[in-house]
Amino acid sequence: MEGLVSWVKNYSMVFLFFTVLSSLAAKKEYRRYLSLFVEFVLVITLLMPVLKLVGSDTDFFDKIAYDTFWQELDSIKADRENLDFLGEEVYRERYEEVIGADIKAMAEDAGYEVLDVRVDLSQDFEIERIGIDLEKDQDFTVIQGSLAGEPREEALDRLRERIMEFYQLEIENIKIWT
Fold this sequence. Notes:
By secondary structure, the protein is mainly alpha-helical. The protein folds into two domains: about 1-55; about 95-175, Alpha-Beta Plaits (2-Layer Sandwich). It has four helices and three strands; from the N terminus they run H-H-H-E-E-H-E. The longest helix is centred in the middle third of the chain and has 53 residues, at about 55-110. Mean pLDDT is about 80; it is low at about 140-150.
């Protein structure tokens, strides 16, 4: 019973104090903000007995802070993992582009007109497959470094072997389309 009387006294004192403070506010503009603050404090004052039943009021706020800390830590971990994943994906795409440009330069040095180069990398950044689209045969196309009358397939095999040796791949991992 003594706790209830103490709670009613505290609530009454807070209510009277804020009623006087509200009436002393100089401008009506500020009364709206002051009223919001007063209502917030009164709600907390009303909830104090409930907070004491749950545990001490400082324990309750400590529990909230503890839970908030762990939630924020989990959020930070998830964000870091996303950044790591996105970072790896960006590096992988850039690496594929650079290798593709290098292979395109090799094919153009051999006298081919390259339409497209596709490079697929594994999760460990190792080359899995290379695909090269070359311009269709034309009568006036001259392949540098090949003998006159040498079949185009032999020249393509030489290009494939050059790429295979340079990147240390198996022959079946290199596809050339004409």
